[in-house]
Amino acid sequence: MKKKKYVEPTKYEEEDYSLKVEAVDTLTKAINEGTVKEISEEQKKTEQQPYKQDKLAKIPSWIKVIFVKFWVAGAICFFFMWGLGMYIKNSLDMYVVVSLAFAFINDLFVTSAFLYFESDKKEYHKWLLVPVPAKKIWTIFVNIPIGFLEAFLINQLYALTNKIVVAVGNLDPNSIPVTMEPLLFGLFYVIVNLFLLLIKNTTVNIVNDAIKKSNTK
């Protein structure tokens, strides 16, 4: 039987071996002295989701939702109503464009972003009219009529505001003192969206309560 040739370990192999031995000795000593603490499930969850512990995560979800919706609506007013205003002269055509912008931007970007960043508590669900990701495809066909309804209600708020300003200021009844601009448009959108959310959440709660009562019978 042929004997295996002894190979002298290199300098780096000896250093690597000594480091491993030292690490094992340190761990053994820590265990014997009771200085090793067991990591709780909460700590593990925190370490696995470090981005949820930043300063932005401490802001209440409703504030973030309102800010994003206000900013997005203002951007739609700026880019679509102001940007395309010189090309689209017909008010009905502009109404259709803005309604579709609400539908597609909310479905593809806003809702998808909120659902992506929410935790297991689903804290953004109650702030979304259709809390389903856009990859389901059918969501866009629900968001399109919602977009038309939101644009219609915003127009009604502008009409009401102008009537009040004209009456208070004793202005020409045919004048339009309050025109559409991003800030007020964004504010009106938030009001309309929260109103629709109130109707939706109330309806869902009533239906859920009815289902629970029927199951307990």
Would you give an account of this structure?
The chain contains 6 helices and no strands. The protein starts with 10 loop residues before the first helix and ends with a helix. The model has no long low-confidence stretch (mean pLDDT 84). Helix 5 (139-169) crosses helix 6. The protein has helices at 11-33, 41-48, 61-82, 91-117, 139-169, 182-216. It is mostly helical.
Record keyword descriptors for this entry.
217 residues, 6 helices, 67% helix, elongated
**Average pLDDT rating:** 84
Helix content: 55-70%
Largest sheet: none
| Number of separate strands | 0
Low-pLDDT regions: none
Instruction: Report, as a whole number of angstroms, the end-to-end distance.
Output: 84 Å
- Tally of individual helices: 6
Give the topology.
Layout lengths: L10 H23 L7 H8 L12 H22 L8 H27 L21 H31 L12 H35 L1
Helix pairs in contact: 3-4, 3-6, 4-5, 5-6
